[in-house]
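Let us practice reading a record.
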Amino acid sequence: MFSNRSAADIAPIATVESLAEAGLTAYQQAVKARLPLAYIAEQSGRPQYWFAGNMLQVVGASATASAGGRVFLGRKEVAGLMLSADMSALLAGKDIRYKDLCVSPADFGKYMDWARTVQ
């Protein structure tokens, strides 16, 4: 069974990462820290994708809008959109609504802080 570990078990990221990279890093750190979310993500069959999608819901991400320009996407902005298979874009049907999804070090840290609280 999984148990929570200390914050020292979860290293922060140093630079902005793509959502895909952040999802993989979150999964790796969750496994290392034996967080319950690692088990939940593994049940999906695609733990990196699960963590990327969950991160969008919990802390959001920055992205390039289809109309151009960088924007921050929170839970409200991603509602009803689908994360692409490569985790680089959010789709409305087959149309790309947002691309180049990224997570800041601060938001990644907030996400991992939150992940440690989930039982």
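A brief commentary: DSSP finds five helices and six strands in the chain.
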